[in-house]
Every structure is written in C-alpha cells, then in structure tokens.
Design brief:
The complex is a heterodimer of chains A (about 375) and B (about 130). Chain A is α/β, with parallel strands linked by helices and about 375 residues long. Chain A contains 13 helices and eleven strands. The chains are: A alpha/beta (about 375), B mainly beta (about 130).
Chain lengths: ~375, ~130
C-alpha cells in the first residue's frame, strides 16, 4: 500500500466572516496550504472538497477563486465529517496510485445562514417530535452522569479546558478563557448543557496538500507528516436497547485506523476529537479505547488532558473553542496534528508529540447509531 | 423550481392507534433477526428482510434518559421535555413528556395523547406523549 503524507497545511481564522463568501474562505485556505507545501497550483492533480450547507458545486467555486480549475473536483457531504471524509477520499486515491499530489479542502460559511440550535434533517420523525443536536447530547450526558456518578460541573470542565486552549490559538473563534462559574451560570441550551458547552456556529476553511511517498522523495520536503492510518465508517442500524454512553461507531473506526497504522491506543501522545458538545469529548476519547468508559470526565478535572498533562486532548481549542464550521472541522483537526507534530504550535505546543489522532464524527440520522465517523492517525 | 415541503404533519408520521383507550405505537418486527423498528419499516434496516410483521407496542415503558430542550427550531414552543422510552418489545422511542418536571431515569411511564411541543397554525400538535 502506497504511503501517504501531509505536505502542506492552510487554515483561515474560524469565527464570523460576514464580509467573505465560502469561496473566499476556501481559496484563502488553499493558497495557504499550497504555499506551506511549497508547490504550485499547477501541481495539484485532483481535489476533494467537504461541505454541508454550501449548496451546489461549492468545491468548484472555491477552487476557481484560488485559480484552480479543470482537474477532477469531488464535492463531499458527510455531515460534520465532510472535511475529514475528503481527506480519506484523497488518501484512498493516493494509495491506489491514481495520483501523486492532491488537495483536500473543508469549507463552510454558516453565520449568514443559521443561528441557534441545529436539528437533524426534518424528514426524520425524531426531528418532527422536537429533537435537536444539543438535545441528543444532553440526553447522553444525563445517562453518563447516572451511570458513572459524575456531575454536570465535572462535565463542564471540558469546556473550560478547551476554551483555555483556544485562547492560545490565533485562529480560534473564541479567544477568551472562561471559568467554571461562567460556564455553569450560562444559559441552559438542553439540560445539563449550557451555552459554553455547545460548539458555536462558525465560518472558516482548512486545506491540506497530500502526496505519495514517491512524490515526497521527488520534492524532498522535511516538513511532511505521515498519515499512517485513515478510516471512515458509518453507524450501524440500532437494534435493541444499546448503551448510549458507548460509541460503537467510534470504536470500529478507531480499530481500523489502529490496524492500518500499527499504532495502538497506548502509542498515541495526543488527540483532537469531535467535541461538538462538552460530553461528546468524553464519549469520543472513551469510544476510541484511549480511556476506560466512565473515567474521562474525572481525569479532565485532574488536569490530565491539559496541554501539559499526560494525554492532551483538543490542544487547538476543539470545536468548543476553535469553532465548528462543519465541513472545515475535520480538515482543521488534521492541520492541528501537523502543527503539533512539526513543533510549530507555538504557545500551545505539546512537548514530545510524536503520534496524534484526529477523530471526527457528526450528524444524526434516525435509526443508526451515528452517521459518519473518521479517525486519522499521524506520525512524526 | 418550487421547494416541496417534505415534512408531513407529525400526527401522520408518529404512527399509532388507540385501542381500548390505550395509545399504542405501530412498529415492525423482523421475522429473521427479531429487530423491532419504530416508525414501521417495509424493509428490515438491519438485515434487509421483507416483509416485516406489523406489531403494536405496549402502552407503557421505562424512561431511558431525558432532557429539557430550551433552544430549538422555530416550529417548537420551548421549553419542552423529551424522553427516550424503552418499550418491553426491546425498542427505544423518542417522545415528548407530559409533565412539569422531567421524570427520573428508570421511571415507568404510560403512553398517552398530549399536545406540543410542535406548533402548527398557532396550535400545538396532538401526538403521543409519555406521562408518569
């Protein structure tokens, strides 16, 4: 199997961009990634572009704005995993030997489209009954608290940690740390989740240039990071009465990435995970087998997942702090892993970071345990 | 291009019958894998079998979990309580809860008709709810 490397990364600030279009943001990220890779736009052989609510042919519009046209452009929609699915698609094409240098872009402009709570697709009966995305995670949090004996204050610590990290990330949506008191005194969105425990609606884009091993040797870059494992899975049909604190989809996806990379849970130094809500971070890290079920929240309280802790999680600020422009999120996670593994993360640099994992999982479709999940393992 | 409204009214979608005064949800049971699905399906979403057996769920169940939704989309009147109810037929169904305070996890609930939280033409829609 052909080895795959991330050669260049680019990311716009996440946040509110009322004066820019999604295409503007996408082009900005692409240009940054090309410059970082030290390649020209003519070198790119194909592109995959992840987005969710951007309408027809967003990929072509964004790449046109960056001066790229004529090549195969594949638009990818896979809920919140759209961007990371674009990376998976690009990796599959490189591994198959179809191309040697490709682009994966994630882009989303939401603040001109939405505010407030997201809900599942209106064709789902659960959405017609009143289910919202915060509502789903709130119900999982209620179970988690009862099953594992933790409090809503303990869960809220996850938001405090991630917003503290975000304050050290110049590209974050939120740049101000919050105290536990501020989180707990915030407005409840769906009990027990408060406003600071819900990812914001953000605009932004992130891009990566990916190459085969042969191309890397030809180009001779020393800053490339190996994509040692990349997995995509969908949720299985729910039959019976499953434990909603356990993520079968996350576990199966991680297993595939572990097998591919030869990296096991014990070898991983740090993680970027899909913390769309505070409780989600616990469910993801436990789901990947990195921490036993029910223990994560207490460990956050002890500082173990801080940047200088034993297992840093969401050093970038995560979705809660860095922001969540849906289609861009999965690519931005890989951008953060590359920065950390290159030693270019500045104030939030994790010491001795050699192996990182990015987990992205999003959306809701009635009847299945999850929609799309990706796990990417990068090795310095 | 005209956009077609894809969301049918919930009372047509939440599939139920009222039998001897009891509200019972319609569901499907797969004769091959035994999986129970609500709303009813024509093809088993677990193993692809067809046809499936039509069944009615019991008119009571157990609260698996709950939340109070305080921010939602415009067609719902907030706040409202949602519960996942585990039925004896081994299927979990999302329902609105008819009560002021959320029920503790593990509570036994009856399935009754209730109104809201969805509002159509200014009126709360009548659909099955869970109630202590």
């Amino acid at each position: 199997m052909e080895e795959v490397y991330v050669l260049g990364i680019g990311m716009t600030p996440f946040g509110k961009h009322p004066d820019k279009t999604a295409a503007d943001l996408g082009a900005e990220a692409v240009n940054l990634a090309l410059a970082d890779a030290g390649v020209s736009r003519q070198d790119i052989e194909a592109a995959w572009v992840g987005h969710v609510y951007q309408g027809m042919a967003m990929g072509q519009r964004a790449l046109y704005a960056a001066g790229l046209s004529g090549i195969p452009i594949d638009n990818v929609e896979n809920a919140c995993s759209s961007g990371s699915t674009a990376i998976w698609d690009a990796a599959m094409a490189l591994r198959a030997g179809a191309y040697d240098i490709v682009l994966a872009l994630g882009v989303e402009h939401l603040t001109n489209l939405f505010r407030g709570a997201f809900a599942p697709d209106p064709s789902d009966v659960e959405a017609q009954i009143g289910l919202t995305m915060p509502g789903i995670y709130a119900m999982r949090a209620q179970r988690y608290m009862v099953q594992y004996g933790v409090t809503s204050e303990q869960i809220a610590q996850i938001a405090v940690k991630n917003k503290k990290n975000a304050a050290m990330n110049p590209l974050s949506h939120f740049k101000k740390p919050v105290t536990l008191e501020e989180v707990m005194q915030g407005r409840l969105i769906a009990d027990p989740l408060h406003l600071h425990e819900c990812a914001p609606v953000s605009d932004g884009a992130a891009a990566v240039v990916m190459v085969s091993k042969a191309k890397l040797h030809q180009l001779g870059s020393s800053r490339a990071i190996k994509l040692a494992g990349t997995a995509l899975k969908s949720g299985r049909t729910e039959v019976g009465l499953a434990d909603m604190t356990v993520e079968d989809l996350t576990w199966r996806t991680a297993q595939t990435a572990y097998e591919q990379s030869g990296v096991g849970p014990g070898d991983i130094d740090f993680a970027e995970v899909h913390d769309c809500f505070s409780i989600a971070e616990a469910l993801r890290v436990e789901g990947m087998g990195l921490v036993p079920h029910g223990e994560y929240v207490a460990r956050v309280g002890k500082g173990e997942m801080d940047i200088n802790g034993s297992f840093p999680v969401n050093a970038s600020g995560g979705l809660l702090g860095k922001g969540h422009p849906l289609g861009a999120t999965g690519v931005a996670q890989v951008v953060e892993l590359v920065k950390q593994l290159r030693g270019e993360a500045g104030e939030r640099q994790i010491q001795n970071a050699k192996v990182g994992v990015a987990h992205c999982r999003g959306g809701k479709a009635q009847g299945v345990e999850g929609t799309a999940c990706t796990v990417n393992i990068l090795v310095a | 291009m005209t956009k077609v409204d894809e969301a049918e009214a919930p009372e047509k979608v939440v599939n139920y019958v009222i039998e001897d005064g009891k509200v019972r949800l319609r569901a499907s049971k797969c004769p091959t894998c035994g999986g129970v699905f609500q709303p009813p399906r024509s093809i088993c979403p677990a193993d692809g079998s067809s046809p499936l057996d039509d069944i009615l769920l019991a008119s009571e169940g157990t609260v698996y979990t709950f939340t109070v939704v305080r921010q939602s989309t415009p067609e719902f009147k907030t706040p409202y309580i949602l519960v996942y109810v585990d039925f004896p037929e081994q299927v979990r169904v999302l329902m609105p809860y008819d009560g002021e305070e959320p029920p503790p996890i593990g509570s036994q609930v009856d399935i009754v008709m209730g109104s809201g939280p969805r509002v159509e033409n200014g009126e709360p829609v009548s659909i099955p709810h869970a109630r202590l």
